[in-house]
Amino acid sequence: MPVQVSTLSAQGYRPHALHSPERSWPETNCYSDLWIEMLHGFGREPLAALGFTAALDFEGDQWTFFKPPPSDLLRLFGLEVLEMAVWRPLEQHLVEHVAQGRLVLVELDSFYLPDTRGTAYQAEHVKTTVGVQAIDVEGQRLGYFHNAGYWELEGQDYLGVFRRLPHFQVQPDVLPPYVEMVKTHPALEQRGPALVRTAAAILREHLARRPGQNPFTRFEARFAKDLDWLLTQPMATFHLYAFNTLRQIGANFELLGSHLQYLRANGEALDGAAATAFVELAAGAKALQFQLARAVNKKKLPDWKPTLAGMHGKYEQGMAALSAWAAR
Known about the structure:
With about 325 residues, this protein is of the alpha+beta class. The protein contains nine helices and seven strands, in the order E-H-H-E-H-E-E-E-E-H-E-H-H-H-H-H. Strands 1, 2, 3, 4, 5, 6 and 7 form a seven-stranded antiparallel β-sheet that branches.
């Protein structure tokens, strides 16, 4: 018997504006993109949940893999994210919890996810997290959020994601995936002006834990060292490097800019210059990624210093304006 949280259909589903192709970074990372679309798909405003982006830092060999903290989701929307113990077949767990109206976040293999056609689908085994909201075991169908949308799969893909194809029988020693369930607490959900006030309070909290010094100072030094090595590497290594550095920078700060625009449009006395600075920083990260891609392809050192210096400056400008708002 099929079970589902809602009557969502992949046909006609429209992603949130945060995933518009007109943005510099229409996709961010799998977990943040997932939450943007899950919130949007169930009528909540993901723009309110992006205050965590103010705390991004350079971690040494990568930038913070940013994602919505569970505590923020509980305070804003009454959504409690809990780890699920996988002690039965995964399908049974999904049926159990989806039938109770809970989204289930589960790691699956992109090789069997048709929305990744052109990248990993039927080409590469890549772990990724999806949000399951509908499952039909007998009909072998699954409805799931992933990346920038809501999708459905069936048949051989269904058997693949649940490791029921014949070749899996010779690979019995496989660890179960990491799984989370999302419980709803309607009494805790904030709406209207209360949602905006809570989002602003959360932004102030994340702003208080931002790096003590401009993280681009440390990134500039590391980037200069990485370049000689990176120019010896194939394009596959460039893609990994760019995802964990420039894409995390650009996507994060474009989301922060959108968050500030949302708060300002809903009554917060924020200087519009802050949002502008972070959006321009994001555009700089995209430009630098293009420069770096050409450099790795041609094995020729790029003129990267002006672009990265501009990003450094935009961070200073944006954080100065945000700090002034937070101090009021």
